[in-house]
Amino acid sequence: MSSILLIIQVLLAVILTIVILLQKSASMGLGAYSGSNESLFGAKGPAGFLAKFTFFMGFLFVVNTIALGYTYNQSLRDSVVDSAKFDSIQAPQAPNTNIIPTAPAAPTAENNTTAN
What DSSP letter does each residue of the chain carry, written as one string? Predict the structure, then answer.
């Protein structure tokens, strides 16, 4: 889910950047290429439409940012233990401590004489 929201976030950022650059500024920037006053947007030109569209895209960008943060935070709450699969829930048993280990038998004199 977060990968889809991340792709939407990048697309919204690109669209928002383009819309902001198309707006008329004091130095006319890229807004000079938006057409004449008698265009599709009416007598005022694209200023009113672009301002509303910029606000709408900014709103979508903020909502998507909040949704992306929420889904990312939810994915961090998942523990590795939650996703691990266990065969049994029983705790491992402790080794038997009643058995006392014995030392091996010491070599006797009979074994030493036959070896020579």
Answer: -HHHHHHHHHHHHHHHHHHHHHS--TT-TGGGGS--SSBTTBTTTTHHHHHHHHHHHHHHHHHHHHHHHHHHHHHHH--HHHH---S--SPPPPPP-SPPP-PPPPPPHHHHHHH-
* Complete DSSP assignment for 28-60: -TGGGGS--SSBTTBTTTTHHHHHHHHHHHHHH
Contact 92, 43 (CB under 8 A): no
pLDDT for res 38: 44
Give tens-digit pLDDT for 42-69.
Answer: 555 566 788 889 999 999 999 999 999 9
